[in-house]
């Protein structure tokens, strides 16, 4: 009697899938994602410089 009898059996390993070929739509989607990522990085750097994002608005005084 081995220690593994009666327990769940490990599933057989699945063969690796081949890398799928990319068509024009996939290439356009990847390019769009890269551009969005670059825009987000630029916005982060601009925001990191400091300063208020929105100025103005109604200010309430402490007096009543």
Automatic annotation (TrEMBL):
Residues 27-44 have a biased composition (Basic and acidic residues). InterPro entries: TMA7. Residues 1-64 are annotated as: Disordered. It comes from the Eukaryota. This is Translation machinery-associated protein 7 homolog. It comes from Aedes albopictus (Asian tiger mosquito).
